[in-house]
């Protein structure tokens, strides 16, 4: 019996959130405009072209131990320590 109220309440809250999101974000009831960088793909293409032009250099691979929060440099087995 209580399950139908819980499921109904959750569904209604999702529907209410969707309606609020639609009017605030898409219809812009509080004003404002969508930035040009989001509205057009020209900016995305120029930014992607710029990032692809940068040379990519990397150091040795690093493994992070999240428990001790220490970084250790990974060395292959054939390298001498």
UniProtKB/TrEMBL annotation:
<keyword id="KW-1133">Transmembrane helix</keyword>
<keyword id="KW-0812">Transmembrane</keyword>
<keyword id="KW-0472">Membrane</keyword>
<dbReference type="Pfam" id="PF06592">
    <property type="entry name" value="DUF1138"/>
</dbReference>
<protein>
    <submittedName>
        <fullName>Ozone-responsive stress-like protein (DUF1138)</fullName>
    </submittedName>
</protein>
<feature type="transmembrane region" description="Helical">
    <location>
        <begin position="6"/>
        <end position="25"/>
    </location>
</feature>
<dbReference type="InterPro" id="IPR009515">
    <property type="entry name" value="DUF1138"/>
</dbReference>
């Amino acid at each position: 019996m209580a399950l139908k109220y819980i499921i109904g309440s959750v569904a209604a809250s999702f529907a209410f959130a969707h309606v609020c999101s639609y009017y605030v974000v898409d219809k812009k009831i509080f004003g404002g405009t969508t930035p040009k960088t989001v509205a057009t793909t020209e900016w995305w293409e120029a930014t992607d072209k710029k990032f692809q032009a940068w040379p990519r250099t990397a150091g040795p691979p690093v493994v992070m131990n999240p428990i001790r929060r220490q970084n250790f440099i990974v060395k292959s087995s054939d390298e001498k320590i």
